[in-house]
């Protein structure tokens, strides 16, 4: 893309626009001041005002030959030629030179001769006076006139300005800021901004003539739908562009060194160095790549100069050095995320052989599970119906369900690789395709839109069915539950290719994918190897064998490419990608647990709702104890049988934890915005929660008093302060992202609930099997943990889950602890209540 140079703008073409109402009135006949002189004076004043904000022409165009770069170029050209001058959001991670892309849009369009000014939204105060103006002083949006205003880091805009920004983008109107004062306590403090002022005190609406461009590295839901969005893909998704970018940076460095009077060196890199650059994840994107290349050139020159000074290889000096850069000088381009990752396939080669064999998972699925699963279902339907006489029911609830939760932190979604539900779905697919039927492609857009709603609703119905109809102690109902889920998999598989059911609709799969983000293992591919050496994509699409190591494969059942996975949600550990890859790109890595949650996963409303509903299910399983805490008896209220009130109360309990967590977050943010001492409020909640666990408030009375201060223990300091009103505290991440901090606690709470079944009744499986055929008192061995040991493990799990959730919340909030104290208080209260229910 060409790099246009800005022309010196005239007063009218410099983006100074038309005069505002109060300014233009002074230029009407009858006034002494000449209109031309007034316009010139206004132009000079605005030019002086805009000078610190002016942006130069773009440094470079879009460099790269990948499909991502081509698409980005087309989007930039389309935005530049937009005659309606609609607002544009350039969205992407840090280091992608989004401001340069915005400059390309401005200087490639018809308004290239007007001013481009930039304002960092992180520096705006709560009133937005710098942007909108205040009183008689105009802001940038007015001073730029017909030019272009670039708002950088819109995601850092103070929350109070988001509604005003949306109106600016949607209606192209705004009001200057105003402040009303209110007396609170001893003095006057700033109370409200423009939109909060009384109607009669509001400044008039003004219309803007400038174009608005924006950049952001996080989503800003408040302005969705009112702006065009250009998503800049991160460099890790387009390693093919690394080749072009490093060439460009080397040319720039050579030109810079040649301009110093010496001959321009010829700089290039070796093939090994290029592969290393292409394999690196580039968390800092282009900015990091440019710095890495420059650092490598400097290091190589210094090494050559040192060798020459020491009598080594001949060199004409660092300034005239020329040569190829080896991988040794690109030591900083080692995978940053791989420093805390271990490739298990390289560390233990037999694991690679096992995972590439037919045993995993095909033989397990089609030579074992396919025959055992119908027997289990038949025993549930027609065998003994109570838990002490049905081995199938005991295996279902005492082993399978708890062990699924045990597997999440270690192997992620591995259960889905050997899932019996989809075994019969795949058998139906093979039968239909062998008969000549053609399965349909996925309706991906509809599945992504309606799939989460279906999954959530089905899981809610299952949890209600489990509680009200007592599925864990009723064998035939548990059998019908397995049949219903299997039927869903079979029906979807008979219509659509691969595993549509598993990816979008299966309630168990949705839960597994969510908890898999906590796993300490992952299946990923090396970006650089996939980009530079793969041309078939058999790991994704499927295909024939590629000797010497690529095996025949049907492709990924969930249509996930291992090099583009950002989390474990859509990976079932089936290892089809490992079997199909002929280049050794796929790795099974050991990593820090929960890495997905802070390194690129996508937050989802449906997933967060499912998480809190699963937490509500833990409380629901102890409904009689919950009712007993308020002095009521569950049987007397009809909460132990199938009654309408049992159903209604169960629904309320299922959704109560999520609503409580969301309400605490909203209340905490609102209190912080009003200047209320959130720390004191949360401190009192924490004190009550700790006293519930310890059974004595004396342990924490001193802390409670110190938090509440002069108001006494148990009081909430709720007096706004001038500092809080004038400069609101730093806000943590939005609730949708921060809510994932509860995930370790939900996992620990669920496992703690099922632990007595696994370590207690599960040890009697041989006696239960004998009782099912009439041998009630058979002298068979049994293993059962001491109740005190089980209680200790339950308490340990709860404390571990609460502590992990607190630490993860801090990581996700990216803000001081004090900014998300309501969430910490919520975790503490939920932990205390579960402690009371599980460990009475």
UniProtKB/TrEMBL annotation:
The chain crosses the membrane at residues 364-383, 403-427, 447-465, 477-496. Its main location: membrane. One of its GO terms (biological process) is regulation of DNA-templated transcription. GO terms for molecular function: ATP binding. Residues 562-591 form the 4Fe-4S ferredoxin-type domain. Keywords: ATP-binding, Cell membrane, Membrane, Nucleotide-binding, Transmembrane, Transmembrane helix. InterPro entries: 4Fe4S_Fe-S-bd, 4Fe4S_Fe_S_CS, AAA_lid_NorR, NosR_regulator, P-loop_NTPase, Sigma_54_int. Residues 1-31 are annotated as: Disordered. GO terms for cellular component: plasma membrane. PROSITE patterns: 4FE4S_FER_1, 4FE4S_FER_2, SIGMA54_INTERACT_4. Gene3D superfamilies: 1.10.8.60, P-loop containing nucleotide triphosphate hydrolases. It is found in: Cell membrane. PANTHER family: ELECTRON TRANSPORT PROTEIN (PTHR30224), ELECTRON TRANSPORT PROTEIN YCCM-RELATED (PTHR30224:SF4). This is Uncharacterized protein.
């Amino acid at each position: 893309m060409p790099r246009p140079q800005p022309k010196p703008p005239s007063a009218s073409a410099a983006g100074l626009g038309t005069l505002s109402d109060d300014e233009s009135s002074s230029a009407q006949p009858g006034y002494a001041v000449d209109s031309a002189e007034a316009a010139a004076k206004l132009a000079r004043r605005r030019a002086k005002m805009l000078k610190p904000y002016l942006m130069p022409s773009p440094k470079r165009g879009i460099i790269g030959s990948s499909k991502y770069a081509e698409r980005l170029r087309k989007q930039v050209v389309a935005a530049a030629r937009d005659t309606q001058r609609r607002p544009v959001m350039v969205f992407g991670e840090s280091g992608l030179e989004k401001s340069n892309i915005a400059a390309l849009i401005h200087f490639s369009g018809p308004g290239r001769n007007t001013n481009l000014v930039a304002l960092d939204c992180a520096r705006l105060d709560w009133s937005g006076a710098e942007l909108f103006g205040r009183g008689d002083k105009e802001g940038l949006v007015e001073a730029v006139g017909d030019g272009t205003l670039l708002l950088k880091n819109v995601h850092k805009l103070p929350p109070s300005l988001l509604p005003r920004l949306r109106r600016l983008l949607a209606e192209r109107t705004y009001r200057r800021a105003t402040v009303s004062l209110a007396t609170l306590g001893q003095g006057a403090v700033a109370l409200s901004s423009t939109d909060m002022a009384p109607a009669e005190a509001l400044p008039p609406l003004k219309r803007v003539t400038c174009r608005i461009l924006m950049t952001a590295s996080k989503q800003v839901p408040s302005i969705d739908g009112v702006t065009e969005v250009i998503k800049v893909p991160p460099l890790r998704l387009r390693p093919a562009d690394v080749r072009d970018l490093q060439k460009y940076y080397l040319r720039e460095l050579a030109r810079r060194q040649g301009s110093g009077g010496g001959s321009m060196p010829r700089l290039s890199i070796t093939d090994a160095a290029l592969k290393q650059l292409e394999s690196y994840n580039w968390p800092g994107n282009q900015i990091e790549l440019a710095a890495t290349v420059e650092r490598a050139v400097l290091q190589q020159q210094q090494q050559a100069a040192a060798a020459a000074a020491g009598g080594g290889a001949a060199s004409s000096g660092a300034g005239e050095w020329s040569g190829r850069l080896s991988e040794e000088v690109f030591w900083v381009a080692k995978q940053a995320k791989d420093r805390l990752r271990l490739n298990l396939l390289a560390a233990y080669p037999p694991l690679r052989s096992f995972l590439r064999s037919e045993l995993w998972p095909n033989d397990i699925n089609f030579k074992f599970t396919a025959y055992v699963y119908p027997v289990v279902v038949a025993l549930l339907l027609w065998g003994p119906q109570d838990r002490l006489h049905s081995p199938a029911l005991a295996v279902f609830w005492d082993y399978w369900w708890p062990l699924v939760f045990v597997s999440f932190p270690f192997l992620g979604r591995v259960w889905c690789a050997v899932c019996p539900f989809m075994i019969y779905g795949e058998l139906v697919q093979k039968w239909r395709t062998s008969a000549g039927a053609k399965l349909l492609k996925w309706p991906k857009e509809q599945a992504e839109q309606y799939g989460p709603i279906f999954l959530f609703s089905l899981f809610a119905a299952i949890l209600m069915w489990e509680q009200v109809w007592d599925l864990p102690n009723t064998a035939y109902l548990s059998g019908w539950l397995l049949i219903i889920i299997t039927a869903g998999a079979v029906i979807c598989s008979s219509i659509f290719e691969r595993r549509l059911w598993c990816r979008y609709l299966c309630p168990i799969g949705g839960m597994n994918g969510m908890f898999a983000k906590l796993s300490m293992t992952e299946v990923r591919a090396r970006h650089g190897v996939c980009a530079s050496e793969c041309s078939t994509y058999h790991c994704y699409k499927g295909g024939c064998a590629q000797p010497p190591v690529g095996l025949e494969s049907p492709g990924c059942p969930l249509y996930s490419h291992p090099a583009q996975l950002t989390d474990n949600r859509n990976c079932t550990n089936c290892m089809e990608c490992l079997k199909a890859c002929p280049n050794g790109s796929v790795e099974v890595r050991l990593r820090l647990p929960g890495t997905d949650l802070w390194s690129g996963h996508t937050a989802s409303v449906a997933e967060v709702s499912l998480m809190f509903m699963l937490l509500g299910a833990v409380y629901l399983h102890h409904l009689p104890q919950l009712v007993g805490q308020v002095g009521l008896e569950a049987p007397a209220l009809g909460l132990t049988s199938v009654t309408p009130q049992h159903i209604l109360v169960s629904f309320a309990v299922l959704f109560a934890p999520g609503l409580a967590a969301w309400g605490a977050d909203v209340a905490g943010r609102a209190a912080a915005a009003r200047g209320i001492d959130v720390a004191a409020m949360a401190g009192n909640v924490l004190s009550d929660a700790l006293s519930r666990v310890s059974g004595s408030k004396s342990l924490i009375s001193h802390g409670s008093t110190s938090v509440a201060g002069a108001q006494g223990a148990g009081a909430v300091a709720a007096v706004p302060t001038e500092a809080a009103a004038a400069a609101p505290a730093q806000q943590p991440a939005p609730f949708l992202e921060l809510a994932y901090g509860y995930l370790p606690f939900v996992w620990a709470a669920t496992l703690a609930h099922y632990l007595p079944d696994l370590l207690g009744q599960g040890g009697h499986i041989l006696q239960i099997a004998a009782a099912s055929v009439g041998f009630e008192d058979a002298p068979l061995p049994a293993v059962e943990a001491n109740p005190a040991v089980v209680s200790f493990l339950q308490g340990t799990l709860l404390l571990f889950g609460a502590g992990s959730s607190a630490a993860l919340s801090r990581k996700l909030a990216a803000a001081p602890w004090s900014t998300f104290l309501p969430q910490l208080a919520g975790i503490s209260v939920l932990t205390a209540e579960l402690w009371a229910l599980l460990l009475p």
